[in-house]
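Quick start: what a row looks like.
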Amino acid sequence: MRKINLVLCLVVATFVFTGCSKNSSTALDNSGSDSKGIITKDTESKEVVSPTDIAMTDFFLPDGSKAHYQGDGNEFAELDIEVAHPFENYVIIYENNGGALVRTIYKIDRDEIVIIDNQMVESKTDFPSQKELDAMTPTGIYLKKPFTKGTSFGDWTIIDTDVNVETPYQNFDHAIVIEKQDKDVINRKYFVKGFGEVKRESIMTTDDGSKYIVTSTLKAVDQ
């Protein structure tokens, strides 16, 4: 039962994502693009960005992007996501974990990103009109400024703003980490400018005191 609950945490803990079919495309990178619009790597890039300089729109991939996340610790931790920007200040993420297709709709404000809808859907063909989106009431806060340690929103708290994150896609610097603690489970999300969530992590303490860890980490991006 605890493992089932942990899986549900991963599904509902909206990492930004839902979407396409599973794939095993080669890991790509984020510092340039070729003529086909595929993100490519520049290992010499060492740009340092202050958290205060990051716009909230920087925590989503561009419209039409797809990404694949490697899963470890649970069969439902492997994810495929697809990103859509149907209207200004709205982002829709479709996340497919092999067991369910989840659609999360975000509204981007100046200093925060709010969740206005999160539900399982049958397909990616239908979504609300802008008038319907404008009338929706936020159900929670996804991310909020100031990006400083201790900033809290809902059950989440920023615990660090300058973390190195290793993923199959590449190593990222200066990640913002948010955390939610429940009785037996710690959930964390790692955000990077230009990508959004690059890692999702759940750490459960079992009855015998050992740690059961489930992670979803960015493996490939295609625009």
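That is the whole record. Residues 2-222 form a domain with the YmcC-like fold fold (CATH 2.40.360). The first helix runs from residue 2 to 12.
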